[in-house]
Amino acid sequence: MRINKKKFIYLISPNFIYPRFYQDLKKVLSSGKVSFFQMRLKKYSYKKKIIIGKKIQQICKKNNVKFLVNDNPELSKKLKADGCHLGQKDMSIIAARKIIGNKIIGITCHNSVNLAKAAIKDKANYIAFGAFFSTKTKKVKYKATTKILDKVKKLTRIPLVAIGGINLSNYKKLLLNNANLLAISSYVWNNKKYKPFETIEKIK
Fold first, then answer.
1. C-beta neighbour count of 111 within 10 angstroms
2. Residue of 3, 50, 114, 140 with fewest CB within 10 Å of its CB?
3. Residue 176 contacts residue 144 (beta carbons within 8 Å)
4. What's the pLDDT tens digit per position in 132-143?
């Protein structure tokens, strides 16, 4: 899977879908900087996720952005998404592959080379590491440094995703240290200073 260097943002949904969300999403994705959009909605019912997911998928398709579903390969298949993202406590890559076939499957490997090696062996399409910086999106159990990116880059050509507290002052460091994609959520959706589109515009 090749990544366009100009499209280095891996955008994750806000925890809650607010009234202007779909309008903001259209604007953000029209920037041409986003490769992937992940729907990560922990507090919504399966039914509601289908309704939301269908709307998101249309917006992603129009802007040539890959649409991924967090945690749930069955929902990914139902929505005809481009793939899914798995955590270490979700089903295995092999089991997910049986459900969604030859679609994109990415997996979180925290700060572990061993988990990354297992993901490479199971033919993950990308591997995510983090948290690199403190974040309010979720509780940080694992801290990662750029050393993990350097080590794993020597083992594989699979794209590496950096996640956790990424913002305007620290994102370049990760791009210069072997991160192919930067996973961003709250910095875009909950930024007190800039609107979502303005935030994306500033990340160059």
1. 17
2. 114
3. no
4. 998 766 677 889
